[in-house]
Design a protein that fits this description.
alpha+beta, two-stranded antiparallel ribbon, 5 helices, about 30% strand, globular
Length: about 190
């Protein structure tokens, strides 16, 4: 296991986790769309940065193998298995630099307990029996996985900003699960 908080966690007198100097920062990463069929709608990941230790990683729920036969067909019909992976953030960011699509970071305002809960959930997801999942364009993908890790491990609630003008591709705009707004944490 990764045990994110092992080197930088202390306990308060009532055994609640506290982070030394609150050096842990967790962000939602939104990557712009690219030309390939699997990235036409962008990508989402989670960034975990420990400013005290220098650890800076991207938690990515969008890893798959091109080695499977008929990749595009399998992707379109929802028969592609995706996997969770972790990479240094600078490598993750470098993968998007040449395309010019960019990576947008939204730093989350989390308590020490919420950061601990998210890190523990990521550790559970990294266990071999939990890493691989069957991709579904609308219901189970890199964005829903990142959203669920955050939403299921905070004490607050997610509030969607509906005041920002949005652009949706017409092929998805009629789907009932399409939520174009960027989540904001309300803790």
């Amino acid at each position: 296991m990764l045990c994110f908080f092992a080197p930088s966690t202390a306990s308060s007198p009532n055994n609640e986790p506290t982070l030394q100097a609150d050096s842990i920062e967790i962000s939602l990463l939104t990557c712009g769309p690219r030309q390939q069929v699997y990235s036409m709608y962008g990508h989402t990941a989670i960034r975990f940065q420990d400013k005290q230790s220098g650890r800076d990683i991207a938690i990515n729920y969008g890893i798959f193998s091109f080695d499977k036969p008929f990749f595009v067909l399998r992707f379109v019909f929802g028969l592609t298995d995706y996997e969770m992976g972790i990479a240094p953030f600078d490598i993750f960011e470098w993968e998007y630099d040449p395309t010019g699509c960019g990576v947008r970071q939204q730093v989350l305002n989390l308590t020490a307990q919420e950061k601990m809960a998210i890190a523990q959930a990521v550790d559970r997801n990294m266990e071999p029996q939990n890493r691989v999942y069957r991709y579904n364009f609308f219901y189970d993908n890199c964005t829903t996985r990142a959203r669920d890790i955050i939403a299921n491990n905070i004490n607050g609630r997610i509030v969607y900003d509906t005041s920002t003008p949005q652009h949706l591709n017409t092929s998805t705009s009629q789907h009932p699960c399409t939520i174009p707004n960027i989540p904001q944490l309300d803790t």
